[in-house]
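[Archive record]
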Amino acid sequence: MKSYVCTLCGYVYDPAVGDEDNGVAPGTPFEAIPEEWVCPLCGAGKDQFEEE
């Protein structure tokens, strides 16, 4: 699975880790994260992320 980086703050979404604090279980690919999910560091939307 591919990691994605927030172009605003540099946060890296690693699908192996997920984002459990915000309801995204480990093993969840970026494409499967709900559209309303935002970067846990800066609040940017999914559209601000690029494949790493």
